[in-house]
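Why does residue order matter? Because the sequence determines the fold. Keep that principle in mind as you read this record.
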Amino acid sequence: MKPEEDIKAMFDRFTIIINELNSYRKTYPNEEVERKMLRSLSISWDAKVTVIEEAKNLETLH
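Structure:
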């Protein structure tokens, strides 16, 4: 996540990257994409990311 970037802008940028990778036939399972996105969030999101990761059920998030 870039400094001063909100979550929507970060998500939009992340989605564009994933879609471009898909156009080159490079695909990732949804769970891996979600983990990559969680890891890319800024430190201010750490508590929320920890709760989501501890739930260990990313299948229910999408």
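The two ends are 21 Å apart (CA to CA).
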